[in-house]
Specification:
Number of domains: 1
Largest sheet: none
Strand content: under 5%
Amino acid sequence: MRLALQIGLAVVVFGFLVLTVINQWSEIQSKGVHFDIFWLLPGLVLLVFYFAFSAFGWDLILRSLGYRIGFGRAQVAWGQPLLARYVPGSILYVLGRVLLSERAGVPRRISLASIVYEQAISATSAVVVAAYFIIRHPDLQDVPERWAVLLLIPLAVAILSPQVFGKLSKKVLGAFGRDPLPVVAVAFGIYSVARAIIYIPYSDILLVGSAQAIGYFAALVTLVAPAGLGVRDAAFAWAVKAALPSRSFAVGSLISIAVRGVMTVAELIYVALVTVVGRRQGWTIHTGILHPSPEEAEASTEETAAVHAPEIL
């Protein structure tokens, strides 16, 4: 029942964006929308790099915990189970990473700890970028209270301190359980996709990229749709219109749909690449997407089954 509600909500919200584009197509055309395939190419490349960069960030966390598995194996362990995050609960995504890391010599508890730190750091980064979006938002320039959002930054950084974070680590994974979001790096890829649809000045690259952080928090707060589908896209559509001269939600919806499509293609390319690398190295395992693989089913111990990773992207 819960699964049906989650999928249903994602379909309804994302369908709303599609209907908005269809019903307001004439308005969209009048806003200077055009399609430039040239801009999609760098967007696709940058988004593939975004996934690789995210995996490298997790590899650095493992190194800080005393385990070096190598760049290639870190990419495989992080990336091969990536598609499983679209399943509500995302437990298969966590299980896949834990088992692949174990094959590389990392104890399961260390893998879980690294994922906890990864999500907390990602969320803190998103706080910083979202704060930039609120401060730069054109409709809030006459609202001095917008600067109050900066108070969240030292609070978020303080939570990462060992004294505080050690007590919150078990709750952090439950609150921020999704793949990492290096929002600054991904901004350029998202801008390229948006630029393929409508002209946006280069000076607004960070504004477009930080709009993605707003979508991240919308998905984080709702914690319902698999991988944030629909909820994240609608929030991003609303936020990205701040970078558009027309402030059109319809154009923002079109950009959001395009970003979701290109990011999905980039994700499939990345997963395919790391799967090939893993198979050539001979240590990869079969990871489930809809159902656990035999290895994952066997490894569903108390320590991993207790982890709930909400579906945010």
